[in-house]
Amino acid sequence: MADEPLRTLFCVGNNQNFFDLPKADIGPVWEATMTFLAGLNNLDGVDIIGTFDDDAHMVGPSDGWPWTFYVLADVRDQPTVKEACNLLRTTMVGEYALWKYFKVEARMGRALTIRDDVAR
Predict the structure, then answer these.
(1) Which residues touch 24 (CB under 8 Å, ≥6 apart)?
(2) How far is it, in rounded angstroms, from Cα 116 to Cα 93?
(3) pTM listed for this prediction
(4) Low-confidence ranges of the chain (pLDDT < 50)
């Protein structure tokens, strides 16, 4: 089991700084968000399983659950999860890091297996 990847849910939420932007300034933040997601997808040791965007039914800053969007991935180890979260610090929007506009929280565990030997 030590070789099993960590099933990781990256929970990403936009904050008030995003909503304080003039509408004309939102585009660069979304471009940086796509850079963040591409960086996560291309990170060695990260295998993205799926994504979930909650922006249609959750409007406004994410102070916690519910988050703005989620990325479910199998990740090699905790240092790789940390490196993935750090992408918010290193992805730039002009002179600011993306973490000015978004926050991330990673939940790690193991894949839940539905066993065949359990009575239904």
Answers:
(1) none
(2) 49
(3) 0.88
(4) none
